[in-house]
Amino acid sequence: MFNPFRGDGPGFLGDILDLLGERGRLLLGRRDEAPQARADDLAQLAEVLLSRRGQAAGGALASSLAAGYLGAAPEERHAFLARLARDFGPDAERTEAAIRAFQDGDPHGLDALHAASEPRRQELFRRLNLAPGGTGTLLQMRVDLLDILPEMPELAGVNADFLHLFTSWFNRGFLNLQQIDWDTPASILEKIIRYEAVHEIRNWDDLRNRLKPRDRRCYAFFHPQLPDEPLIFVEVALTTDMPAAIAPLLDLDRVPVAPEQATTAVFYSISNTQRGLAGVSFGNFLIKQVVELLRTEWPDLRDFVTLSPVPGFARWLKTAREDAESPLPEPLRQALDGPDPLPEPALVSAAAQYFLRARDARGRVIDPVARFHLGNGANLQRLNPGGDLSANGLRQSHGLMVNYRYTPADIERNHEAYAERGEVVASDAVRKALPPQPRTARG
């Protein structure tokens, strides 16, 4: 019987092994017997993968490239990513020919130019995605790239190609919404514990308290190529009012609310799980779809709010307190000029300044959680001093949490106000906490 890992037969791997030699044999053979692949090995294998037309050959090559990459040392992975930037861009000759054809009036010139100008690595990524586990390998490649991108800006084009493809592959039409409950397979529950990014899940009892009671829900998006990997998940509490603090929601000894009596759905934790998908936004679809599911299941729910952290507040406030020319009004600066804990009225006033006036270098609201919810069409409803007194809550926001409110009838209008004019739609209570505008404020 023909052995596809030998180079002496008519099989589709013969040419590959002739090209790569003994190192190619090892790279394509058993991974536990092979040395770690080098960047040159991976780049050669990528070239061969791009040259093959048969699906069977392409699948075997893609699997080998994925295995080789994942088994390579970090420095070889980084070197391979650099090779993708340098050697797998657009085909220069083909692009120039397409430009000339377009300038000469070729009716198909624009299509040819579009095809020729696409970086070759995009097709490489498409072919690699065909391998079993290929999608996960590509996500890991982007994680590796993001780790070194600040020191290697020449990888920006590779990053843009990843983002371009992932935006298409992970659009809402390919995602499945699933409820996570106490009967969900343990392999997925373990990932919920590990990926929780807002309020640490301390143990299985803590997880049970978030999933099993009737007044708790958890929903996640999954992708068909990653069936056991939640991409993003949201934890929901059904309550009788809008909460101001996280501790009562997570208390293991709390008395559950009968869902039939609940009036409010609280989104108290939203966690993205895949760093390789940074910049691919599907959290807005998650919240909107969960709102519709909850309204269908419990028609008496009237309010949909978050209880959200404020991760950038303490850092911004420290800078503002130390900068004599910051936009903090002098009376507020004096009220804040003392040791922690800061006085609540001053803390709330500073928070109103942070959300409604302060902006980053790009003119955006500073807080990333605020940008997410405001961009989704929520309004800033309430500021809650003492909302999170955990060590992390005190460190990142002096314990401050906020409520964003999602009112279905207002979501589109709020979104347009923020997206088109940069306007933060906020309640009267939040606006009343805003300190007087200093005459020499810079922003």
Written description of the protein model:
The protein is α+β, with helices and mostly antiparallel strands and 443 residues long. The chain folds into three domains: 156 residues, Up-down Bundle (Butyryl-CoA Dehydrogenase, subunit A, domain 3), CATH 1.20.140.90; 134 residues, Aminopeptidase; 120 residues, Malonyl-CoA decarboxylase, catalytic domain (Aminopeptidase, 3-Layer(aba) Sandwich), CATH 3.40.630. Helix content is 49%, strand content 10%. The chain has 20 helices and seven strands. The strands form two sheets. Strands 1-2-3-4-5 form a five-stranded mixed beta sheet, sandwiched between helices. It has a two-stranded antiparallel sheet with strand order 6-7. Helix 4 packs across helix 8. The longest helix is centred in the N-terminal third of the chain and has 17 residues. The termini are far apart.
Q: Describe the global form.
A: globular
| CATH topology descriptor of the largest domain | Butyryl-CoA Dehydrogenase, subunit A, domain 3
Largest β-sheet summary: 5 strands, mixed
- As residue ranges, the low-confidence spans are 1-17, 19-26
- The percentage of residues in β strands lies in 5-15%
Q: State the strand order across the main sheet.
A: 1-2-3-4-5
Order of helices and strands: HHHHHHHHHEHHEEHEHEHHHHEHEHH
State the CATH class of the largest domain. Mainly Alpha
Radius of gyration: 27 Å
Please give the count of helices: 20
Overall helicity: 40-55%
Number of domains: 3
Number of strands: 7
Give the CA-CA distance, first to last residue. Answer: 75 Å
The CATH homologous superfamily of the largest domain is named Malonyl-CoA decarboxylase, oligemerization domain
Structural class: alpha+beta
CATH architecture of the largest domain: Up-down Bundle
Mean pLDDT: 87
